[in-house]
Amino acid sequence: MLAEILIFVPSMARFRADYLVSRLEKSQIAALSVLASDRMIAPELERELLANAGVYNVVLRRDEVRQLVLSSPIPAPIVETYDLRTAGPWALIRDAMAVMLNPEPQVIRVIGYPVQQAGQLIEITLNTAELRVSMLDYGLRILALSALISVVTAFLLFLAVQRLLVVPIRRVVRSMQAYAQAPEDARRVITPEARVVELRIAEEALQSMQTQLTNSLRQKERLAQLGGAVAKIAHDLRNILTTAQLFADRIEGSADPAVARSAPKLVASISRAVSLTEATLAFGKAEEPPPQLRLFALRPLVEDIIEGEGLAADSGLVQPILDIPPGLVLRADSEQLHRVLSNLVRNARQAIEATGKAGTIEVSAGEDDAQWWIRVGDTGPGLPPKAREHLFSAFQGGVRRGGTGLGLAIAAELVRGHGGRLELVRTDEDGSEFIIRLPKLAAESDE
By its UniProt entry, which PROSITE patterns does this protein fall under (predicted)? Predict the structure, then answer.
């Protein structure tokens, strides 16, 4: 609408100006005809000349003399005088709108320059009725042409919007609907084809999201299948270990002193293996049994783990360092904490042994008013960047080739079951350090 106004209004002003200039030119021709005949013309011819020019009278100024060349009775007083010699654009627009909005005929005087230097000025009087009719007719033609142009433009714009926006958006919607029916099918991932830059970026983002989601679904499906297989294996393994546990119980009654000394450790190892298989079954069900909290001394538990991992203070490539107060007692599930610390110590030992160089594993512990803490540090090569991103995620945080990444995932879950946190403090070329934080407040509330 604004474009229509900006086109229509100046066009009407220009039409009015051209109309008046045309009347001035016709009046000048009629006046020169009269002057050429030494003003010897019949009244009928004078009326015909005025009617042909569409004016009431014509005044021509030549040689500093103002002459009334043609004249006829004026039916009404002159309402307004318009000087086209000094009229600017805004004045022309204002005067044109005044004629358009005033339906009453008026007599006006118009002044302008004669053509071909036929004098200093020419002045005419005319009625605005015919001028208004001509302007209205011209305005209707302008509006009709504008409407036609608008319709054609709207149609072309509709086609452009359909081709550039609607069709690509519909294609994106159809692709999303098809993908939602079978998100695991990689063939249903959208292929960016839009020509509009913004839509192209949106399609590329959707393609990336669908690709990642498809890969995640495939991975979760494989993990679910693997979990089912692990659960079945753990179930059968638990039955085998239960049988081995029965035989180990019989060995405890042996008269051989060496067997009697080794039997308790064998029974304890088999019991932990049974607990581990049961925990694996529980993990396959996406749940971990709640911890059985009780008070126990931490140092004997850690010493048992160090001995179970084959670490000795006087021999071997890996040397243990214990910095745990003998009297430190904490409240936790000893079996679950054994699993957590065993996993951390085993990972540290394997990392050092993989380098082929001597190293140390330090286990320290302490407490304050709010929590107990246990640190496990080593002098190994540190964790690779890829392992740090998903360190505590099942099947994603594995460090060793062939590792599943379940160890740290289960350890973190067990610590969270105590209301605590398992954190990686540092990892670099000088080694890695983990810390276990167990809150005392949660423990006290259980008493």
Answer: HIS_KIN
CA 397 to chain CA centroid, Å, is 29
Beta pairing partners, 60? 67, 122
Over the stretch 147-193, which tens digit does the pLDDT of each residue have?
A: 888 889 889 999 988 888 888 888 888 888 888 888 877 778 888 88
- Element housing 405 (H / E): none
Q: What is the DSSP string of 324-344?
A: --TT-EEEE-HHHHHHHHHHH
CA–CA dist 360, 355 (Å, integer): 12
Each domain of the chain, given as residue ranges in start order, spans 2-146, 291-445
CA 66 distance to own-chain centroid: 79
At the fourth CATH level, the homologous superfamily of domain 291-445 is Histidine kinase-like ATPase, C-terminal domain (3.30.565.10)
Query: Using one digit for the tens of pLDDT, what is the confidence trace for 152-163?
Result: 988 999 998 888
Confidence of residue 5 (pLDDT cuts 50, 70, 90): confident
Q: Residue 373 forms beta bridges with which residues?
A: 366, 437
Look up residue 116 and give its amino acid: Q
User: How many other CB atoms sit within 10 Å of the CB of residue 397?
Assistant: 22
Give the whole-angstrom CA distance, residue 447 versus residue 430.
42
The pTM of the full predicted model, rounded to 2 decimals, is 0.43
Beta strands in 298-445 (DSSP E): 318-323, 329-332, 359-367, 371-378, 421-428, 431-439
Nearest to 293 by CA among 170, 440, 395: 440
DSSP state of 401: T
